[in-house]
């Protein structure tokens, strides 16, 4: 019985990996990242700081998010999702904000974020 339990636990431990969300491989050189969605995609002017989630493709570890040309370190979640912190000072006034990412020396498309 102890052997069966031990084998069962070993099987569970070995089957628990990083899961399908883990993408430890960086895209190859020359592969440009692409932004498909920003979440949220709008905030009210004067709002408090928030976490911006960037969805897309070809994100690598070390990807940087540019918010109106100001670089922000990103937290790599998967090759399709990163997050960054946007301070309240950067959403104090209404207007459009250009957002793009830089990954593996390549810039993504630019997506507009609205501060209303």
Mean of residue pLDDT values: 86
Topology-level CATH name:
Immunoglobulin-like
Order of helices and strands: HEEEEEEEEEE
Instruction: Please write the CATH class name.
Output: Mainly Beta
CATH architecture: Sandwich
Spans where pLDDT lies below 50 across 5 or more residues: 17-23
* Largest beta-sheet details: 6 strands, mixed
Helix-residue proportion? 10-25%
Determine Rg (CA atoms, Å): 19 Å
* CA distance, first residue to last residue: 64 Å
Number of domains: 1
Q: How would you briefly describe this protein structure?
A:
By secondary structure, the protein is mostly beta strands. Helices cover 12% and strands 43% of the residues. The chain has a single domain, classed as Sandwich (Immunoglobulin-like), CATH 2.60.40.10.
What is the secondary structure topology, with strand pairs?
Elements: H1 2-15, E1 34-39, E2 42-43, E3 50-57, E4 64-67, E5 70-73, E6 75-78, E7 81-86, E8 95-103, E9 106-107, E10 111-115
Structure characterization notes:
It contains one helix and ten strands. The chain is mostly beta strands and about 120 residues long. The chain has a single domain, classed as Immunoglobulin-like, CATH 2.60.40. The strands form two sheets. Strands 2, 4, 5, 8, 9 and 10 form a six-stranded mixed β-sheet that branches. Strand 6 (about 75-80) and strand 7 form a beta hairpin. The longest helix has 14 residues, at about 1-15. The model is unreliable at about 15-25 (pLDDT under 50).
């Amino acid at each position: 019985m102890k052997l069966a339990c031990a084998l069962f636990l070993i099987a569970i431990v070995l089957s628990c990996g990083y899961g399908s969300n883990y993408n430890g491989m960086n895209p190859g050189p020359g592969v440009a990242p692409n932004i498909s969605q920003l979440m949220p995609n709008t905030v009210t002017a004067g709002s408090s700081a928030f976490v911006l989630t960037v969805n897309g493709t070809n994100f690598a570890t070390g990807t940087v998010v540019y918010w109106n040309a100001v670089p922000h370190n990103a937290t790599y979640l998967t090759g399709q999702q990163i997050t960054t912190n946007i301070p309240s000072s950067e959403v104090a006034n209404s207007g459009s904000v250009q957002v793009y990412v830089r990954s593996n020396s390549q810039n993504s498309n630019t997506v507009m974020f609205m501060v209303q």
